[in-house]
Amino acid sequence: MLHRFGRKIRRDLGLRREAAEPLDVHAFGLHLAEPLGALVAWLLLASVLGGAVRGILFAAVAGVMVFISFDELLPTAREYGEHHIAVYGLTAGMAVMAVSLALMI
Questions:
Q1: Are residues 66 and 83 in the same domain?
Q2: Which domain holds residue 21?
Q3: 6, 38, 56, 105: which one has the fewest Cβ atoms less than 10 Å from its Cβ?
């Protein structure tokens, strides 16, 4: 979520610069909505959710991300003729994540 915040701001600033429009406060507020919503949710739910529940939620999110990688990104890479590179990148990314998770234990 926070990693996307900067990208959204840069993209919006770039689009505004090309159109020669000033950055309005409304657009900036829309970019702040996601991180502020996450902060409020964390403040409200941190004491309620135990470690096991958070682990289950993180596993579900990881499953969704892996599904999207296989279902959307790989067919698109195949369409553009670079599917081997995409498979290598996906495999290497999963290996890096597995090693980093193993090191945290």
A1: yes
A2: 1-48
A3: 105
Contact assessment for residue 83 and residue 74, using Cβ atoms and an 8 Å cutoff: yes
For residues 40 and 53, membership in a common domain is answered with no
Query: Are residue 58 and residue 92 in the same domain, yes or no?
Result: yes
Both structure tokens of 32: 């702040």
CB-hemisphere CA count at 13 Å for 93?
11
Assessment of whether the complete model's pTM goes beyond 0.70: no
Do the beta carbons of residue 13 and residue 23 sit within 8 Å?
Answer: yes
> How many Å separate Cα 39 from the centre of its chain?
16
Total domain count, the chain = 2
Q: How many helices (H) and strands (E) does the chain have?
A: 5, 0
Q: How far apart are the first and last CA of the chain?
A: 24
**pLDDT, block means (10 residues), the chain with 105 residues:** 58 57 64 81 84 84 84 83 83 87 79
In a shared domain, residues 58 and 22: no
Burial of 87 (0-12, 13-18, 19+ CB in 10 A): middle
